[in-house]
Amino acid sequence: MMDCCLVLYHPYRPLLQYIHEWNNKETILPTAWNVVNDSYRTDICLLYAPHQIALACLHMACVITQRDYKQWFAELNIDLDKILEITRHILNLYELWKNFDEKKEIPALLAKMPKPKCQTSR
Fold it and tell me: What are the mean pLDDT values of the chain's consecutive 10-residue runs (122 residues total)?
């Protein structure tokens, strides 16, 4: 048996620290928070640093709420390619959700699953 411990740092604290100095944070923060929650349905939290995930979610929230913070993002000393890569991962998740047809996909998946073997009681 393996005995291990996984420590995972969440992007919520960096998100709050970044948005602290912003105007209109009442509209951007809930959207960014929801994007962070959605990002947990991917492996992003295992691949990228929490501050990068927070920035990507802020970027997406700015686009969704149509706020212009390009100057603020430009002043950051970060790798914007990583932020855009994280954004693409989350957008791929949303695209998958949009195209997923539950009535068509689930029966095919259930047919592939192994059936439990029933034991008769004596």
Answer: 86 93 85 95 94 95 89 87 94 88 78 80 63
Each domain of the chain, given as residue ranges in start order, spans 32-100
Tokens 């699953």 identify what position?
Answer: 113
Which residues have a Cβ under 8 Å from the Cβ of 80 and sit 6 or more positions away?
Answer: 73
| Cβ–Cβ under 8 Å, residues 88 and 115 | no
Q: How far is CA 54 from the centre of its chain?
A: 9
The yes or no reply on domain 32-100 and CATH 1.10.472.10 is yes
pTM of this prediction? 0.80
Q: Which residue from 7, 18, 19 is spatially nearest to 45, judged by alpha carbons?
A: 7
* Sole residue written with tokens 């439990």: 116
Query: CA nearest 36: which of 67, 28, 104?
Result: 28
Radius of gyration of the chain (CA): 20
